[in-house]
Amino acid sequence: CKQILRVPNNKFSIVYKALDKSDKMEDSEFEKYIIDSFKEESIVQGIFKLKEAPSIEELLNKFEEIPDEFYKSKGYLELLNFENLLHEEGISDYCSFSSRVVRGLDYYTGIVYEVFDTGKENIRSVFGGGRYDDLLSLFSDEKISGTGFGMGVLMLSLFLKTYNLIPEDILERDYTDTIYIASISKEASPYALKLARFAREEDFSCIVDYRFKNLKNQLKRANELGVLIVLIVGPKEMKEKTVSIRNMETKEQKTVKTESLLEEIYKIVDEYAD
């Protein structure tokens, strides 16, 4: 942008944003956005050329004049070196250059990438990321470079489901040994959290319901999950340091002191858990 198109530094972000969103914009919409943002015809035409470029070589061939300093620039040399590494490792057939993958270059400081599922059943981006040299300096005096990516749970789930890669035992998760804490009011939420920490310290998985809906609704949710034990707490229990423990198998429920809670949990687990 700077050396070839002569885009002012304060307008880099506009170019990045336009390229990043170009595949989601109609051609006319993209053109209008660029023309409205830049008055110089050479910059406008240059950005249009950036939109479609299957390789570095083909991209550069679109421009008549490229200054010598560009070929010595850190970014260009880094791309060439990376391209060579892909060939040496034998994975170049799975990678392609794209000038439209931007991913917020104000955040990244080097090469950015996006990984796609190219199968006919699920043609979509799965995750993307890039290199950053300065990010960790926000948390440490030591300068450490790195690379990272963000993956959406929905996209990963769609990919795994499309190709039947999720094992059956994961699809049918067993919540029997999970303790469900039904918190009747926001006032009791600190107490519910304290009980959750206690249960987890004893190696029990724990779900805390922070919706604060009525008890019937929360018990219904616990039953749908197949939970065996529900701990019910409210302002009264918090004040008296007690817990109402409900066996979802027998529907029996009783109130116990916190010091007796672990014993009651194990009684139910030992008798009713598979």
Describe the overall structure:
The protein has 274 residues and is α/β, with parallel strands linked by helices. It has two domains: 9-162, BirA Bifunctional Protein, domain 2 (2-Layer Sandwich), CATH 3.30.930; 173-272, Rossmann fold (3-Layer(aba) Sandwich), CATH 3.40.50. Helix content is 41%, strand content 18%. The chain has eleven helices and eight strands. The chain has helices at 12-21, 27-37, 41-51, 56-61, 74-88, 153-162, 168-171, 189-201, 215-225, 235-240, 258-272; strands at residues 112-117, 124-132, 146-151, 178-183, 205-209, 229-233, 242-247, 253-257. The strands form two sheets. Strands 5-4-6-7-8 form a five-stranded mixed sheet, sandwiched between helices. It has a three-stranded antiparallel sheet with strand order 1-2-3. The longest helix is centred in the N-terminal third of the chain and has 15 residues, at 74-88. The radius of gyration is 29 Å and the shape is elongated.
